[in-house]
Amino acid sequence: MKHLFIFLFMLVVHCCYCDAKYFETRCDLVQELRKQDFPEEKMADWVCLIDSESARHTDVVGKPNRDGSRDHGLFQINDNIWCSNTTLPGKKCHVTCAELETDDITKASICAKEIFRRQGFLAWHGWEKRCQGTLPDISDC
Fold first, then answer.
1. Is 86 within the bounds of a domain?
2. In this structure, is residue 135 part of a structural domain?
């Protein structure tokens, strides 16, 4: 019985983390962003933003912001405005925050593009602090 409990515990722990993804290289990330139809002329900006915000991990949940909100996923999308912390999709991106933390970045990409459309890259503090004027070289990708 003890071994069964340990097996089930390990299975649950594994499944909690099986939906996350880490993009090992910038080129891996660029390939995925191209699949998501991010524009080539802004690709280095998006890569820099993601490096700065989540270090290319899809399952990151940021520390609480001043207002108590948190940022979620690859693009670190805020739950006060853009995603819902319930099981029902909601807020401006019509998604749950959990949907932004999976290995399928489709919904996160759609939401990030909507944020960019409304506010530009300055919506992300990581881009503002680390990317203005200094973008990564992705020419080999």
1. yes
2. no
- Look at residue 12 and tell me if it is in a domain: no
Catalytic site residue 71?
Answer: yes
This prediction has a pTM of 0.85
Q: Which one is catalytic: 32, 45, 51, 53?
A: 53
Length of the chain: 141
Residues 112, 72, 95, 99: what is their CA dihedral angle, to the nearest 10 degrees? 110
Nearest to 110 by CA among 122, 136, 92: 92
**Residues in the chain with pLDDT values less than 50:** 1-17
Question: CB of 51 within 8 A of CB of 26?
Answer: yes
Has residue 141 been placed in a domain? no
32 assigned to active site: no
Domain that holds residue 102: 21-130
According to DSSP, residue 64 is labeled: P
Mean pLDDT of the chain, nearest integer: 90
Q: What is the number of domains present in the chain?
A: 1
Annotated catalytic residue within 71, 79, 99, 101? 71
